[in-house]
Design brief:
19% strand; two-stranded antiparallel ribbon; elongated; 3 helices; alpha+beta; 141 residues
Length: 141
C-alpha cells in the first residue's frame, strides 16, 4: 500500500530528473555558439529522455500504478548545424561559412521555465507530504 515514503520517493525522483533536465539546458545554452568540440565539429544539443519506473509491480493496485521517473538517457541532437556566413571566423570553411550548433536559445529558455515549474511542483509535493506526516504524528499524541 502506498505510504508517505512512496510519496517522497516519487517526488524526489521527479526532483532528480528535473535537475538533470536543467543541467542539460544549461549546457545547451552555454554552448549555443561553440563551433569546436573534442569530437570535432560544433556542439550538439543534449536531450534528456525520461521513463516511468514502477514502485512495486507486484504490490497492491495503487503501488503497481504509481511510478517514479528516471532519466533513461541523454542523447545528442542529430539536427545539422546552422551555417552562418562569416569568412573572418577562425572556423570558417573555404566557402566562408561557419557551422554553429542548431540551438534556439528561446526554446531552451521555455524548456528551462517548464523544468523549473516541474521542480517546484515536486518540491511542493514533498512539503505537503511532510506536513501531512507531522500532522498524523501529532494526532497520535
Amino acid at each position: 500500500m502506498a505510504d508517505f515514503f512512496d510519496t517522497f520517493a516519487i517526488a524526489s525522483s521527479g526532483l532528480s530528473a528535473e535537475r538533470t533536465r536543467l543541467t542539460t539546458i544549461a549546457s545547451n545554452m552555454a554552448n549555443a555558439r561553440t563551433t569546436r568540440t573534442a569530437e570535432g565539429g560544433p556542439y550538439q544539443r543534449l536531450i534528456p529522455s525520461f521513463e516511468a519506473e514502477s514502485l512495486d509491480p507486484f504490490g497492491h493496485a495503487l503501488d503497481a500504478a504509481s511510478s517514479r521517473v528516471k532519466v533513461a538517457d541523454v542523447t545528442r541532437d542529430t539536427a545539422p548545424p546552422r551555417r552562418v556566413y562569416d569568412p573572418k571566423h577562425p572556423d570558417a570553411g573555404p566557402d566562408g561559412f561557419v557551422a554553429y550548433p542548431d540551438i534556439n536559445v528561446m526554446e531552451e529558455m521555455v524548456d528551462m521555465m517548464t523544468a523549473q515549474r516541474a521542480y517546484d511542483a515536486n518540491a511542493n509535493v514533498i512539503e505537503a507530504a511532510r506536513t501531512m506526516a507531522m500532522t498524523a504524528i501529532g494526532i497520535g499524541k
